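Cell division cycle protein 20 homolog
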Amino acid sequence: MAQFGFENDIHSILKLDMPIINAPKARWQRKASSSTISAPTALTPGKSAKASLSLSKTPNKTPGKNKKPTPSKMGGDRFIPTRNGKQMDVASFLLTKENEPMDINNPAATFESQKAWSLSLNGYNVEEAKILHLGGKPLHAREGYQINLKVPYSQVTNPASVKKTRYISSTPNIILDVPDLRNDFYLNLFDWSSRNVLAVALHNSVYLWDAEQGGVTPLMNLELEQNYICSLSWAKEGSCLAIGTSDCKVELWDVDNEKHLRSMISHTARVGSLSWNNHILSSGSRSGHIHHHDVRVADHHISTLTGHSQEVCGLQWSPDGRYLASGGNDNLVCIWPRIQEGSFGNSSQLVRCFNDHQGAVKALAWCPWQLNILASGGGTKDRHIRVWNVNSGSCISSLDTKSQISSLVFAPNYKELVSAHGSPLNNVVIWKYPSFAKVAELNGHEDRVLNLTLSPDCSTVASVAGDETLRLWNCFEAEKMVKTTHSVIHPSIR
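Tokens:
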């Protein structure tokens, strides 16, 4: 009886309830077909039997030029595995068995019995006969590809795609007392050199503050007590400082040796603005005139620009030295060409003249990554930041800041624009350029902010105000800043 039970189990496993459609041929059919192909055939005259036999073989490469053969090793293709004829037979059989009811009471026993019969009859596991089988190492997605769903790719995090969180402290890193700072909107009383030294004018004296060492050094004093410093500007190398005074002079000082180099007298009123272009120093006066000085020669005054009718309070050369921008108390923004080598005399030839502002224009800033873009800011009656395309002469954008604008600085690290404000805000604002979305407000000054300047590494903004304080704001660090208790240095410059 046991023998009959064994045979019945064999028949029940191998029983096919329905014909197999598109199933592979049986082994005896494949042998018959292969023997038919390899049977001797009539030879074509002029061709050998060896050549005819080679034609009967199946080519081992896919027809076509430059196409690689199908992989013959197991695991060569991840989605189409290589399997023999027996595996295909068993796979076809298993497809027909999938729809048969399993033993609900003991499904694990049914699977184990199928595995045992497969090992006994075929010599391999049933799992190895699956139609689709994933194997091999997972593929890598392209760089920067990110998806939240589970996919058969190994995701590699792209560092450029990781968004960094930026923190801007509302507290300045350093606060310096600047007693006797002249609270005059039209003056430019401090500048930051390429050697990381801040020069500050306090009434009739100039002091230097080393940003690395923290030491304060007095540089010079005017002889007469009633005279005062009106403007400061460092040369590009950071060793020569130009000083404009109320007694119509422009003085040059060698900072390394603390030596007075020369005094240049050409103006008839106080010199409230200065700007360098290599060896050419441009100075703006309360008379409305702009003078060009060639500091290399004894006869330094080489040209006069007469486009303004009132005091020139803003003066900036473009980074490439092509244009000079000037702003005045007459609400005008003038664009002047560069000085031609060897040219002398008076000149009033303007490249552009913008008259859209309704207040005095002291704030001027050239964009360092778009050299034809100039930003200008108006005074109390205007309160607008306007961005100009100097080449076309058009106003690209305009923003009402609701406050007097005294200074503008472009921050190249983040492509942002920083503005200093007087009444009623008395603060510093960082704007995203060119969208003018507000990034941050830096509050703390108790009087109008008079000037802004940027550190040599473009990471720190310095602001000086009528409350006789100079504040340094670390706003443009590349990495996230952790909010901690700030150790504010509060020394006095003098």
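The mean pLDDT is 80.
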